[in-house]
Amino acid sequence: MTFHRLQAIIVPKISHVVDIKEIAKSKQNDRYYYWLGIRAAGDFGVTIAIPALIAAYLGKLLDLHFGTSPWLLISCFTIAFVITIAICVRRARHYAKLYEQGPRG
Predict the structure, then answer these.
(1) For residue 15, is pLDDT > 60?
(2) Mind listing the pLDDT tens digit for each residue in 30-50?
(3) What residue ranges do the domains of the chain occupy?
(4) Quick check: pTM over 0.90?
(5) Nearest to 48 by CA among 86, 74, 75
(6) Are 47 and 84 in contact (CB under 8 A)?
């Protein structure tokens, strides 16, 4: 068996030439989606944390003032939960649109 025949068996034939610009564009697309994911994760984290912290502070403060512990705290958490869900749904739609659009350029 000759070297060329062995090489033809082992190494698959390339049907097209790989373009350097195509590889660079693919890496830019990957970078865009990675950063979009990181941005979305941070955004959702803040969206969930801030209303919960405000609800905890406000609920505790109102419970101490009115002496209704823990009912106003629970009420504030419930309101914060509803607000958080509404904001998260709106932001999820926004990030879905950005994902579908893909990188510009």
Answers:
(1) no
(2) 899 999 999 999 999 999 999
(3) 44-105
(4) no
(5) 86
(6) yes
